[in-house]
Amino acid sequence: MTMKLALFVSLMIAALGAPISEAEPGLGSIVFNLIHIQGTLYCIVNTSMGTNGTATPVFPNAEVLLSCGARGHVVASGYNYTNATGRFLISMDPQQYFVPILLKSCKLVIISPFDQCISKSTVGRLVSSLKYIGKTVFGDITVVNIIPNGFILVHPT
Fold first, then answer.
1. Nearest-CA neighbor of 37 among 105, 87, 101?
2. Which region is the signal sequence (predicted)?
C-alpha cells in the first residue's frame, strides 16, 4: 500500500512540474484577435473576371450583411458597404464568434437594389457562403481571413 501511495505522490509531483504545452494550431484551438471577412463584389453573378481576362464592373455602395443561422439572424450590419472599387470588409470580435461556426452557419447577403449593375427587373438577393483562406500575424495580433465563396442570385420564394 505504501508503494502505491509513493508512486501516486511521485506521479503527481512530476505532473505538476511538467511544462504545459500549447495546443496544436487549427481553427478550433487558436485564440484570434480579429476576424476579417472581406472581398470584392462584382456586377456579374458567379464571376470575378470578364472574358479574356478583362475586368468585370464592380458593385459600388452595396450594403453587405452577415446573416447566420436557419432564421438568418443578422450579426453584422450598419456600415458594411462596398467602396467605389466594390471592396468590403467586415471586422468581428473572435470572442463573440467561433470561426468554424461562422463558416458553417453564416452567409453574406447583399440587400442593395441591383439597378447599378444588373437589370432593374432582376428580383432577389445576392448570397454567398464563407471560405477560410488562412491567418495573418502582425506581431501580437492574429487576423483570421475569410472571403465569400461566390455570390449567387437567390430569387424570393
1. 87
2. 1-17
From residue 145, alpha-carbon distances to 34, 71, 92 in Å are 9, 25, 11
> Structure pTM?
0.69
| Helix, strand, coil abundance in the chain, percent, nearest 5 | 20, 35, 45
* Residues listed for the chain: 157
Start-end of H helices in the chain: 2-17, 99-105
1 vs 133: which has the higher pLDDT:
133
Spell out the domain ranges in the chain: 27-154
Amino acid identity, position 132: Y
- Give the tens place of pLDDT for each residue, 47-93: 454 444 456 788 889 999 998 887 767 776 556 889 999 999 998 88
